[in-house]
Specification:
Layout: E1 4-6, H1 15-30, E2 38-41, H2 43-52, H3 59-74, E3 77-78, E4 84-85, E5 87-93, E6 103-107, H4 111-121, H5 124-141, H6 147-150, H7 164-182, H8 190-204, H9 208-217, E7 225-231, E8 242-247, E9 259-264, H10 269-272, E10 279-280, H11 283-287, H12 289-306, E11 310-317, E12 320-328, H13 333-345, H14 351-357, E13 370-372, E14 379-382, E15 384-387, E16 390-396, H15 399-405, E17 411-415, H16 423-428, E18 431-434, H17 442-450, E19 454-456, E20 462-464, E21 469-472, E22 475-478, E23 482-486, E24 491-494, E25 498-500, H18 506-519, H19 528-547
Parallel strand pairs: 3-4, 16-17, 17-18, 18-19
Antiparallel strand pairs: 1-2, 2-7, 5-6, 5-7, 8-9, 8-11, 9-10, 11-12, 13-25, 14-24, 15-19, 16-23, 20-21, 21-22, 23-24
Length: 548
């Protein structure tokens, strides 16, 4: 049994072995796009670990050999006293489960390696910031330190203006939290750090949040996750560095324009967590035009390869772009319809395939409801519309209260930001509002995947979970107050407003015309989902006959 595979264009294993994330990296390599070197530990190793409680026999030797190869490729040494190598350790199941499992960044930055990195770069602040980021992810994902404990670490620590003495104090604080929680200090042996991180990623497959996500999306529980290990690219290196996420098309409308957000001087977790104020993706065009040009070229090549809208995560260090992840966009509702029709019009796919790509369930979200005639006295707060639609429900300030209150009727979950730990609340809620984050934050991505309205980045919103209330614009609403949100316009209003869902969609009209051409059925009275489902059934019957 081979447990570890390189991330290279020659790899032939499938997503069932490599996981979807690593397979995407293989595709990127085949297309000649920039990918940090690395390797992947297979899903079979995870299944063995979950079955036996330990890493499989022979994995240690393969892991040592894979690290040797990575060191040779980068001319660095993991945790080494000279030219230290740091790596990311990420989960990746065969079916994407965004944000549900563990990630550890900057692994290998031991105390000695951090000092060496500071000497090598001449930037002590960068080295300490990177060490702190490693420790906080290690504390959360490996040592089991809860988010409430880590919340005491000032969010501003990752900022470019944080002085080195404060960073050093924060490092000591996190090291103490880890020692108190686990009874042991963080290993100064980078190989041991890696082993512990791999075990943590494997174990995260069975966390309650991951199980909840799989149950909601019909994903089998016995698949296991792969572990992707790659050389770090430092988005926090300087102001010509950064990170971001991008869709090749707008996930809210399906329009063929790049969509996403970026952060300068930060690492990827700051974007996807929603904990930081992001810049629009187009900001790259002004600040890093070469990165912008290369990113647009990559998105075009990926759309041509996948014949679909795509999503990527990227980092750039000192003006050099690296792609860290790619997957299909997985749009829903109006956006899914528009992409299918536009791709058919462009000749990228045929009309039959366009019909098969749109789920009948998507059509329930196509005629996007909007809140109309908002009275100023009713407007509670405003943010960024991140997932179209209108949700009406009672205020819930925690995931637990959302799950509890949902037994009595619809709820809207309001949080400073969401994390995978909020998964059960997101599942229970009719919609979500966050004070922080952008249109590709955790709350936005999960809400879109569930077809639930979302508003993010409501900057004047304060969520006081201890007192069970929310505040904005001088008003305080206790839990249980009825509110509504518009996931297109970004408004959050008090009470139950007037809602208009009568808008027509020209792309839907054309798609359903193609559906009627397939069935030959022009009778009136059938609803849109029935028309699409009938066409899909006819196309599948034709396909079955062709194969027999």
């Amino acid at each position: 049994m081979t447990w570890i595979h390189p991330i290279s264009a020659e790899v032939e294993e499938t997503a069932e072995v490599l996981g979807g994330k690593a397979l995407g990296l293989v595709v990127l390599r085949r297309l000649g796009l920039p990918v940090p070197p690395g390797f992947v530990i297979s899903t079979e190793a995870c299944r063995t670990f979950l079955r036996t409680g330990g890493l499989p026999s022979g994995l240690d030797a393969e892991l040592a050999a894979a690290v040797d190869g990575l060191e040779a490729a980068t001319h660095r040494r993991l945790g080494g006293p000279q030219r230290p190598l740091a790596v990311s350790v990420r989960s990746g199941g065969s079916v994407s489960m965004p944000g549900m499992m563990s990630t550890v960044l900057n692994l290998g930055l031991t105390t000695e390696a951090t000092t060496t990195l500071a000497d090598e770069t001449g930037d002590l602040r960068f080295a300490l910031d990177s060490r702190l980021r490693f420790l906080t992810s290690f504390a959360s994902e490996v040592a089991g330190v809860g988010p409430e404990s880590l919340a005491g670490i000032d969010r501003a620590l990752a900022g470019q203006d944080t002085d080195t003495s404060r960073l050093a104090e924060a490092i000591q604080d996190v090291e103490q939290l880890i020692a108190e929680r686990s009874g042991a200090s963080v290993p100064e042996d980078a190989t041991r750090q890696l082993e512990l991180a791999v075990e943590a990623v494997f174990s995260s497959w069975n966390t309650p949040r991951a199980k909840t996500y799989r149950e909601l999306h019909g994903i089998p529980h016995d698949l296991g996750t792969a572990v992707t290990v790659q050389a770090m690219v430092f988005g926090n290196r300087d102001q010509r560095s950064g990170t971001g996420v991008a869709f090749s098309r707008d996930p809210n409308t399906g329009e063929h324009v790049p969509f996403g957000e970026a952060l300068f001087g930060r690492q990827g977790e700051d974007v996807v967590s929603g904990s930081s104020l992001t810049e629009p993706l187009s900001e790259l065009a002004d600040r890093e035009p070469e990165v912008w040009t290369r990113l647009l070229s990559a998105l075009t090549r990926l759309e041509e390869n996948y014949r679909d809208a795509c999503y990527v995560e990227f980092t750039f260090e000192a003006g050099e772009l690296w792609i860290l992840q790619v997957r299909r966009g997985r749009f829903v509702g109006r956006a899914a319809v528009r992409v299918a029709v536009d791709l058919a019009d462009a000749g990228t796919i045929g009309r039959d395939e366009a019909l098969l790509r749109v789920s009948p369930q998507h059509l329930t979200h196509v005629r996007t409801p909007r809140i109309t005639a908002i009275e100023p006295r009713d407007l509670f707060t405003r943010g960024l519309g991140a997932s179209p639609g209108v949700a009406v429900g009672r205020v819930a300030t925690t995931a637990d209260s959302a799950a509890r209150l949902a037994a009595g009727g619809p709820v809207v979950l309001l949080r400073p930001e969401t994390s995978p730990l909020d998964m059960h609340g997101l599942a229970a809620a009719a919609g979500v509002v966050t004070a922080r984050g952008g249109p590709t934050s955790h709350a936005a991505v999960v809400a879109r995947s569930m077809g639930k309205p979302a508003v993010v980045g409501a900057a004047n919103l304060t969520v006081d979970a201890a007192d069970g209330c929310v505040r904005a614009g001088g008003r305080t609403l206790p839990e249980g107050t009825l509110i509504a949100l518009d996931g297109t316009g970004g408004e959050v209003v008090v009470g139950e407003p007037r809602i208009d869902a009568s808008s027509t969609d020209p792309q839907l009209h054309r798609l359903l015309g193609w559906a009627d051409d397939v069935t030959g059925d022009r009778t009136t009275g059938r609803n849109e989902a029935e028309r699409l489902a009938s066409a899909q059934a006819a196309l599948r019957r034709t396909g079955d006959r062709a194969e027999s």
